[in-house]
Amino acid sequence: MTRSAPASTELLAIAVDVAREAADTAYRMRAEGVSVAATKTTVTDVVTAADRAVERQVLDTLAKLRPDDAVLGEEYGAGEGAGSGVRWIVDPIDGTVNYLYGIPYCAVSLAAEVDGDMVAGVVRNLYTGEEWTATAGGGAWRDGRRLRCSTETDLGQTLVATGFGYDAARRAHQARVVAELIPQVRDIRRQGAASLDLCLAAEGRVDAYYEKGLAAWDLAAGGLVAAEAGLRVGGLEGRPAGPDLVIAAPPALFAPLHDRLAALDASGGP
Ligand code: IPD
After folding, report:
1. Which of ligand 1's atoms lies nearest the C-alpha of 163?
2. Deepest of 36, 74, 143, 207, by most Cβ within 10 A of its Cβ?
3. In the CATH scheme, what architecture does the domain 155-263 have?
4. Under a CB-based contact definition with an 8 Å cutoff, are residues 46 and 38 in contact?
5. CA of residue 83 to ligand 1 center, whole Å
6. What is the pLDDT of residues 83-101, one digit of tens each?
7. Residues 135, 229: contact at Cβ < 8 Å?
8. Which fold has domain 8-138?
9. What is the pLDDT of residues 37-51, one digit of tens each?
C-alpha cells in the first residue's frame, strides 16, 4: 500500500460525506426541472446538466480534501493525481434515464481504489436516501445493518437483474440473451441503474445480476458492496468482472449462471 494512503474507513467516511452532498444537489436540481444537455455514445445515451454539475461538485470537493488523489468520472474522464496511490471513481448519477423521467431509481456512486485495489465504496439512492457502503474486508452495510446476499441455489428460482447498453445493435444482442434466459430463471428485472442493482443483490432483493458493457464507474462501488455481501463478482472463464461481462451471484449460483450466459454468448455481439 502506498505510504500516504489512509485507511479504507477514512476513505469511506470521505466518500459518504461527498456522496450525500452530491445526492442532495442532484435531488434539488431534479426538483427544479431537468432536461437533456447533450448525448454521448448514442442519441439515447443522455447527459443532463445535473450529471455535469454533480460530478463537478464531487471533483471540487475531493480536490480540496484530497488534492493528491486521482479521479475517474463518467462525465469528465480521468484526472491525474500526484502519486498518493488513491483513485476515486465517480458516477454522479447512475440511472440517468430514470432521473430524466423522475423514476426514483438513480444513485450517486463513489468508490476509492488504493494502488488499483477497490477499498471503499458508497452508493446512495438520491430519491429514497437509501445508502449502501462497503470497505474491503469490512463487510457491506445499509442503515447499520450488515448485508448478506441471497442463499438461493437453484437457477430456476433465481430473480436476475440486468441492464442494456445504449447502442441499438448491442441491445438487440442483449435482448436475445434475455429472451433465452428468462424461461430458465424465476424472472428478470431491468431497473435502470447498475450500481443499485448490485446493491439490491447485496441484500437479496434480487438474487443475482449480470450485464455486458458496464463502465468502471457503474461497477466500482456497487461491485464492492456486492462482493462484501458474499456475492461472487466476476467475468467469464475466471476473468475479472469488466466491460465484457459482469456476473454477481451467490457462490452456489455463480457457476450455473456463468455457464448459461457463456452458452448464450452474453459477452458477445457488438
Ligand atoms: C447506465 C445504468 C443502466 C445500465 C447501463 C449504464 P448511466 O448508467 O447503470 O442500468 O444498464 O449499462 O450505462 O448511463 O445511467 O450512468
Report:
1. 11
2. 207
3. 3-Layer(aba) Sandwich (3.40)
4. yes
5. 30
6. 899 999 999 999 999 999 9
7. no
8. Fructose-1,6-Bisphosphatase; Chain A, domain 1 (3.30.540)
9. 777 777 777 678 898
